[in-house]
Amino acid sequence: MVTEDLVRRRAEHNNCELFSLEEISLHQQEIEKLEYLDKWCRDLKILYLQNNLIPKIENVGRLKKLEYLNIALNNIERIENLEGCEELKKLDLTANFIGELSSIEVLKYNIHLKELFLVGNPCTDFEGYRQFVVATLHQLESLDSKEIERSERTRALQDYPEVKKKIREQEKAYLLKRAREKEDTVTNKQQTWEENDDEEDRRFWEEPTPYTPESRLEAHRYIEERRAKDSKRESKKKEKPLRTLITADGKALNVNEPKLYFTLEDDEENNQFILDLAVYRHLDTSLLDVDVQTTYVRVQVKGKLFQLVLPEEVKPDSSSAKRSQTTGHLVVSMPKVCERVSTSIKTSDSTAQKNTRSGQVEKLEVDPSRYSFPDVTKIIQEKERIGQGPISFQPRKITENKKSYVDVENDEDVPPLI
C-alpha cells in the first residue's frame, strides 16, 4: 500500500512536503495497489513506480501536470485510466503483462505523448504490433526507443484495417490462454496446501511455470513466507532456555553469567556483608539492576545475571549499592539480620557453657605445704626492718649505730638535734 509515511520519507528532497512535490521515486517498495497520490501530490511531474507488484493503472488520472510515468516491471495487463494526465509526454510500461494491445487506444487523448515503451510485454509478440501502435497513436515520435519515421507511419496507416483485424484475433487467443493460466494457478495452490514444506520448496523451484502476473505475485509471496519461516526458526535457535536461579524446593543457586570477578567480605565491625563486583569501569549505571533478598543477592549486568547465595540472612531494606569512583566496581552493603554480640559476653558465656557441660563445681582448697604463714613472734622485728627499708644491709647499719651510742652520755639539758 502507498502510505503517507512512505511518501513523506521518499520526499526528503522536498522537506517532506507533499502539496508542492514534483518528483518522487517509489520503486522497489512491493506496492500492490496504486492510490492516494492524485490527492496528496497534485503537482507531480515525474513519478517512478518501477519494480513493484501493481496490477492496474489507477488513481493517477487527476495528475494534470504529470509528464513522465515509469511503471515498468509490474503486473499490468492493460493500459487504462490515463486520459486525465493531460501533460503526459513519456510512458514506460516495459516488462509488464499487457496482452490487450487494443487498450493503447485510450492514449489518443494524451496529445502530448511522444515516447512509449512496451518492450517485454506479450503484445510485442503479436504480428503487426508496431504497425498497429504507430497507426493508432499519431502523436507518437518514438516507440521502444526507436524513432518513428514519416514513411513508416504512412505504410502503417495504409495497412491499418487488416493489421487491426489480426491484432484482435491474436488478443482473443491470448485472453483464452490467460484464462486457462488463472485456472491452473488456482489448482496448483490447492495442491500446494496438501504438500509439506520440503516438497513444496522443491516443486516451487524445479517445476517450470509460465511467466504471468499470478506467478510473479505468487513467487513474491512465497519468498516472503519462506523468509518469515526462516526468521522464526532463527529466533527459536537464538532463544536460550531460561537459566534456573531457584530450585523447585526454593533453594537459590550461584550464577555468574557475565563471568565477573567478585569478593564477598564479612565486615564484623559493622555487622554486614560487602559484595565487590568488578563490573566494567565505563559501563553505564543504568545497565545495572540490583536485587537484594534475605538469603541471596542478584545483579543484572547488561541482561546477564549474577546471583550469589549469602552465608547469613541480611536486611534487604537496609542494604545499599553504589559504584566505586576509582575502580567503577559495584559495591553492595548488606547488614546482617542477627545483631553482633560483644567479645567479653561471648567469653563468659562460653566459660559458663563449659562449666555447665562438665557438671562439676569448682572449690577453693588450701595446701599447708604450699603456703607459708607469718611468725607472730617476729612481727615487731619485721616492722623495724620494714621501717628501715627493704635493703638487706640496712639492719647491720642500725646495729652499728646502736653500738656507737653506748659511750655517749645523754644530757637532758641539751636540746635534741634537728
Which labels suit this protein?
Leu-rich_rpt, alpha/beta, repeat, leucine-rich repeat, 4-stranded antiparallel sheet, cilium, cell projection
Question: How does this structure look, described?
Answer:
This protein is α/β, with parallel strands linked by helices and 418 residues long. It is built from 10 helices and 15 strands. The chain has a 7-stranded mixed β-sheet with strand order 1-2-3-4-5-6-7, with helices on one face. Strand 12 (296-301) and strand 13 form a beta hairpin. The longest helix has 34 residues, at 160-193. The chain starts with a helix and ends in a 14-residue tail after the last helix. The relative contact order is 0.05.
Q: Would you kindly provide a brief summary of this structure?
A:
The chain is an alpha/beta fold.
Measured by DSSP, the beta-strand proportion falls in: 5-15%
Q: Write down the overall mean pLDDT.
A: 81
* Overall number of strands: 15
How would you describe the shape?
Answer: elongated
Biased composition (Polar residues): 343-359
Domain Dynein axonemal assembly factor 11-like CS: 216-336
Subcellular location: Cell projection, Cilium; Cytoplasm
Region (Disordered): 180-242, 343-366
Topology of this structure?
Elements: H1 4-9, E1 23-25, H2 37-40, E2 46-48, E3 68-70, E4 90-92, E5 115-117, H3 129-136, E6 142-143, E7 146-147, H4 150-158, H5 160-193, H6 197-206, H7 213-238, E8 255-256, E9 262-267, E10 272-277, E11 288-292, E12 296-301, E13 304-309, E14 320-323, E15 330-335, H8 343-358, H9 379-388, H10 394-404
Parallel strand pairs: 1-2, 2-3, 3-4, 4-5, 5-6
Antiparallel strand pairs: 6-7, 8-13, 9-10, 10-15, 11-12, 12-13, 14-15
Helix pairs in contact: 3-4, 3-5
Biased composition (Basic and acidic residues): 215-237
Protein name: Leucine-rich repeat-containing protein 6
GO biological process, one term: outer dynein arm assembly
